[in-house]
Every structure is written in structure tokens, then in C-alpha cells.
Prior knowledge:
Two copies of one chain form a homodimer. Chain A has 492 residues and is an alpha+beta fold. In chain A, strands 3-9-10-16-13-12-11-24-27-23-22 form an eleven-stranded mixed sheet, with helices on both faces.
Amino acid sequence: MSKKLTKREEDYSKWYNELVVKADLAENSAVRGCMIIKPYGFAIWEKMKEELDKKFKATGHQNAYFPLFVPKSLFEAEEKNAEGFAKECAVVTHYRLKNNPDAPGKLMVDPAAKLEEELVVRPTSEAIIWNTYKNWIQSYRDLPILINQWANVVRWEMRTRLFLRTAEFLWQEGHTAHATEQEALDETLLINNLYADFVENFMAIPVIKGIKTESERFAGAEDTHCIEALMQDGKALQAGTSHFLGQNFAKAFDVKFATSEGGLDHVWATSWGVSTRLMGALIMTHSDDNGLVLPPNLAPIQVVIVPIYKGKEQLDEIAGIANKIKSELEKQGVSVKFDDRDNVKPGFKFNDYELKGVPLRIAIGPKDLEKQQVELARRDTLEKSFVPQDQLSSLIPSLLEEIQQTLFAKALRFRDEHITAVDSFEEFKKVLEDKGGFIAAHWDGTAATEEAIKQATKATIRCIPYTAKEEEGSCVFSGNKSTKRVLFAKAY
Amino acid sequence: MSKKLTKREEDYSKWYNELVVKADLAENSAVRGCMIIKPYGFAIWEKMKEELDKKFKATGHQNAYFPLFVPKSLFEAEEKNAEGFAKECAVVTHYRLKNNPDAPGKLMVDPAAKLEEELVVRPTSEAIIWNTYKNWIQSYRDLPILINQWANVVRWEMRTRLFLRTAEFLWQEGHTAHATEQEALDETLLINNLYADFVENFMAIPVIKGIKTESERFAGAEDTHCIEALMQDGKALQAGTSHFLGQNFAKAFDVKFATSEGGLDHVWATSWGVSTRLMGALIMTHSDDNGLVLPPNLAPIQVVIVPIYKGKEQLDEIAGIANKIKSELEKQGVSVKFDDRDNVKPGFKFNDYELKGVPLRIAIGPKDLEKQQVELARRDTLEKSFVPQDQLSSLIPSLLEEIQQTLFAKALRFRDEHITAVDSFEEFKKVLEDKGGFIAAHWDGTAATEEAIKQATKATIRCIPYTAKEEEGSCVFSGNKSTKRVLFAKAY
């Protein structure tokens, strides 16, 4: 079984694709651009979901479920949003198949079952949801509405990559309705901060919080806040977005409410989402040439115990110790697997768990039995040490915590080393080419300059960071006046 | 606000529809046949999901995710399955919209973006999954595969009803692959028993476990096991199914494996599912003319506290006590809401929580303050009593348990009273008409008789119960020989 990966520096993109498949995270399906999320990959996604869901609920949000389909007439109601997604919509036109008279055993679309109005498979749910909110909202007493939905969405992408860009993906989409502009702005910010907290402290991925430029904004939004992460190859990845929608959808769907002052106003809105794309960010932030590296928070198996033995008697003895270690750790909430499979060798198991990013590996052999120790290996640093068996249950929980911190610190260091301030377009191009990462540069604020830089370098403005300092400067491209630096990068 | 429901005996169907909407469980959407599951309804569904998911994992199953779309050529591979679902398939034929040149601001399907092969929106996922398993299974070492998926599916139904029959619904679908027939049969049974355990002990709905006749079998299965519940109006509801698929899908998708004996064999399969239909079963088993009645296991709010007060000072005093009760109960895992809204009256709150099925209501007024008591009302029996405040935290957890048991016992009694053995077709028709419920009758085992009875009475064979006794008899319809009684009923 060849589990050897292409090295990152040879071909980062190939390394990524191989890793996703070989670590049993996901694979391509028979449907163009749609992926299969395999059990191991899905278990990681479930951990993300669970934690995010907890955070949403703790901030007053509730889950609900809205239809998969959006009638075309609703879809087109908010024109900018419709325009933004029209080119990538899967469309249901018929509701029945029938036997193909020309090909026995085969089916064909029944032309008699054509829908009067076509149904768009949701690429995002603002339209169907705001058409519903219209009936839910009469008065300021009905506000705010704070709803989230876990769902699948479809955007017909031409070039797809597992997790990063797939025709169907899984996500959560929040859709909130508010009585005032300020409340909606506060919600937009609350969620972007919640995302940053989750991605940094749970996934160990450092992010930069900021605001998108107009050209990178969500179609139909007044402002898009985002968190931007940096991958090991120096490309940025948008890890989550939170949109202030103003009154755009309320106007498109005629959603008005009686204010507490006796007036009538359009409702203010936000929407926000993160998706299975985060799996891609996870992989490309922490993993190495040996395979996946998982922060302990996200590892379906945090500790694996591999026995090294000859004969049943030795295995039994090791199993006794392994099961004791397992049960002591499980009491402390650590997930442990004892892999006593007899049909594969320890070396194979070592490679496999390394590939799958299990944070800690315990090996127990005959000598360890004698010495009442185990060999403990860290996946992140690849360090090995011998540890007395009776120290494991106190050591491992804190070691897992340490690994979580170490991974974040390492990624943060890398990210910080890859933010480069430049003051000329020559330097801009050179840094982008030689070093990659984020480039902090002055920009004149025009879409024309943004587009020209993109055409020349493929770099886009990832965000205007919340923390960008006010400083006088001149645009790297046009030389025109600028008051703050924005972050450019090539991006996934 | 008119929350008054139609009475069940006036019009059961109208009562159901009104209850679903007024208790904020679900509502119809702008998409024909697709429902919106509202936050309160979704919170109940989440509780079901969580418990089922735990049970699946405890029995060795893992979650994964497969594509929403099934290419037509895969869909038609297992002919019986395809034939069974072809008439209700939503079909994606195009992947792009474009501006409609004849109607500014409107969109149209772009004829240039027609798919080479149509995509069926999954009505069930056997086809796409077995096409995948083909690549995952080479040897007996790759088996068993025990996978579950939580997903949305679409079956284009002409007559839809909230939760009971909708074009899109949410469900879980298990798909397992095994090396031997016996293992697959065991899995089929394991899951049907797991479903029964869940529905009876968690949802408090008694069910009858049995096997479907050939005409009621899942398209593509060798055998369909099921659990059948009885609703208050005497109609049966299929609450879950577990299918033994034999080697049908393995043959259709050419999935063979090297056996441990060195041979080559087709893989054995099962599939199984429960859906948001269970919400319908829940409602129609326990609820009454005042609204929803929820078993405490499924109640998003188990205890609500309503203050009855004049002025802020009294409210503050009550709030102090309410919050103390709340925190003591929450420590024991009871979910409590203190509703101190000032803009609606206590009577309105009482009605609303009754309508929403909150199992216990605590009211605290000025006299209760004096007497250090509360008024405690049970939703299931509508009984009220006064309870000393300091007894609540010990009383309520056991009372919730008692309510859970009482609801099950009541539903079981009703169900058992509505299983009637009949020995003639006259009696059959009379019981069906006058009393409803399950009719235990001898049947000659032919599809022709089954169909004739259905035509004559609208009753179908719900199942051949696991517990059906061997006894000599003659078919109620044909008079031919029969060896056991089966259960007939009209059904949802």
C-alpha cells in the first residue's frame, strides 16, 4: 500500500490532493465537482459543527430549516444577489422520469412533467428566507430574528478541488433580522469575532479580521466582514464571512415592520457563513510531508495505542495495560483507540496514523513491558520519548493542550513572518513572487486599481484589516493618496 | 391572537394542520410541497437526531456525506429501485441562468448550459453510495462498512402535508455492506430494534415491529422491516424502515469482494431510515385539543416559569425566586425558561406554552410568595397543584420522568385497545369503519387479495408482526388457507 505523499515543495497542490484522499478525508464522486466526505473527514467536520453550534446558541441563535429549492421569481428579486449567483445555478426543470421507449431498462426525463416555474437549487438562502421573514415580521416585537441553518448548497463551479471549491458543499448560514441599523452592524461584527475566536482557538488557525472591498463583497451586501487565513504555500484563504445586508433584502421582499415609535420601516439584515472549506484551511495550515496534522480539539482519535508483540500471550499482556491506559484517559475526555489488528504490522499502523494526523501515538513492546514504560510520539513535532506508564494519565491531557497551543503558535509565527509591508509596485511583485503571503500596501481605494493589480499579479485585496492604522501614504500602483494599508495576496 | 384550535373530533386533519402551524413547528413555503421547519420544531428534531446519532455510533456506525445529485445513468442501474422512484424525481437539467433579453431584470435558464447527463436530486442514496462502495471494497477485510448519512432528500409528492409527506424532507439513511447474508440480516434486525427502542423509550410512542409484504416493500429490497405506530384517529403511521437489500445493489453496481476462503462474491447490503415524518407521529400520538403535548425527552423547554405580578417590585421578588428554582433545576439537566416578558399577560403565556406542549408550568403570584409555594401544572393531565418552593428541585426531575412514562403508557393502552382480531370480511369492514386501528386478520399471502382489500377498504397490510403466532386460519377475504394473522390498517 503506497501511502507516500508528494512533498509539499515539489508540488503543493498535488500534495494537498493526495493527502485529502489518502488520509481518508474525502474523494471525488461520479457527479462532476461533487465530493464524498468520508467517515474520517466527516468526523472532523462534525467536531467543527458541534463547537460552532454551541457558540451560535450561546449567543442567542436558533436553528431552523428552509427549502433546498428557490423558485426563479424569488431568486431574481434581489437583483445584485441574483446577478452574483446566476452563472453557477443548478436548475430543476422537471419533476418526473419515465421509461425510455427507445431504450428498454433506461429512463428519460418526462417532457410532460415540466415545471411551470424553474427551481434553483439554493446557492445561498437569502431569497427563500427573506420571502419567509416577510410573513413573520409585522412589528418591532417580532425582532430580532436570529436564525442559523446547517445545509448543503450548490454553486456550479467549473474548476473544483476537494473541500476548497466544490459544486455542492456543506455549510451553515445565519440569517438575522433587526429593527435598527446599529443592531445589524453589531450582529455582523459579533459573528465575525465569533468566527475568529472559533478558527483561532479551536482550529489553531490564526486569522486576520477585516472588511472586504466593494469588488470582493458578497452580492447583495452593503459590507462583508471576513476572516482571512494564510496557507503554508503563501496563499490566503477566506475562512468565513459575515455580511451586513442593510435593507437590501427587506426592500426586495417588501419586509416592513411597525417601529416602537409608531412608524413603518424596512428591516435590517445580516447573513454569515462558514463551510466545509474550513477543512481545506485546516489541512493547509498544519499538515506536513508525512500527512495530516490535527489540532487535538479536532482529532477524532487523539491518542492511538499500537502494540508491538510476538504471539498471543504478549499481545494479551500489552492489551491489559493498553486498556487500562485507555480507560483512564477516556475518563478525562480523551479519545483513545487501541489498534490490536493482527493482520497489519506496527510499521503500517505507524504510517497510517501519521498520515491521519493522530496527535499522540503510544507504542508498547516487550521491553516496555519490562520497564513499565511506553514510547510516546508527538505527531506535530515527530518527537519520541519514553514515559512511565503510571504517568500517562496525568501527562497526556496537558500534552494535548500543549500541542494545540504549539500548532497555533507555529502557524501564527509563519503567518506573521509572511505579512510584508511594501511601498512600491516593484517590491510588491517581487515579494509576491519570491515570498508570497500577505502584502500590506497602500491602495487608492478605487476598483480600477484593484482590478489592474489583479490582472498584473493575480493578487487581490483580501481585506482592510480592523487594525489597519491611519497613516498617510501613496498607492503602490497609482501613486494616489491613501490613508491606510490593505492586505493583498493570491488566494484560494 | 386566535390560537384556538379546531377540535380533534370535529376534523382531525384540520386540527393537525393548525397545530403544526400555531405551535410554531413548521409551515408551508413558497416552493410547492416543501416545508419550513421553524426554530421550535427544529429544536425537537435536533433532540431526536442527537439521540439517534448516539445510538448509531454506539453500535459501530459512522457518519459520512454523499452527493445530493445522482447522474441518471447511475440512478437507473438498479431497475426496481429506479422504477420505484422515477415518478417522483426532481431533475436538474441546466447549470446556469442568464439575463432574459425580453424582460429586463429577469432571469431565464440558459439553453447553452444544458447538462450532458441529467442529474436526479436524490430521493434516496443507494445508487450513488453503491457506485462509491464499488471502489472501497476489494476484500473481506474491507467489510463491514457501516455508514449513516444525515441529509435532505426530495420525492416529488402530489399531495403533501407538513412533516407527513413533503417534497423535500430531512432524514438519516444508513447504508451498510457485509460479507455474508447472515450479517446483513442481523444488521437489518439490529436497526429495526434500535428504531423501536428509540421511538418507544425516547419518543414515548409504542410501535409494532414487523415485516412488510412484497407489495409494500422498499423498491430494490429483498425484505423491509418496519415499525408501525398508531395515531389517535385510528390510522397507522410507518415510523421507520430497515431494508435487507440482499445482493441486488452489489449486482447492479458490480461490487464483488475476495472472500476469506479465496473466492469472489457479491457484497450483501442493508439500508434504513427515519425522517422528519417522526415529527408527525409525535404530534398525532400525544397531543390534545389544547395543542402539542411533548414527552419531556423531546421538549426544548421542559419547565416554564410564569410570574403573576403587579408592579416592578413584585416582579423583582418573584424573579429572585424563579431564578433560584431555574438554576437548581438546570444543575440537574432540566431545561427551564423564566418568561418575564412584560408586554403579554400571564393568560396569554399560559395558552402559548400549553399550545407548545411544555411539560410543566410553574406560576408564581403574590399569594405564592406569602406561602412560599408555587402553582405547578402538568401539560399531559392538565392537573394543577400547589408545591412548596423548596421541594421543586427534588420533585421535578422525577415528575418529568413520570410524565414520560405516563405518556407512553397512555399511548400503549390506546394502541392495544385498537388492535382488533376479526375473522370475517364483514367484521373487517365494520371495525375499520367504526373503530379504526389495527385489524389482525388472516390473509392468504397473495398480492391479489391484498390489493382487493385495499381497493375495497383503503386498508393496507402494515406488517407481519415479529410476534405473529402460527395458527391455522382462513383468509378474511378469499377464505384460502393462512398460517398467521397480519395487521391491516388505513395509514398515513
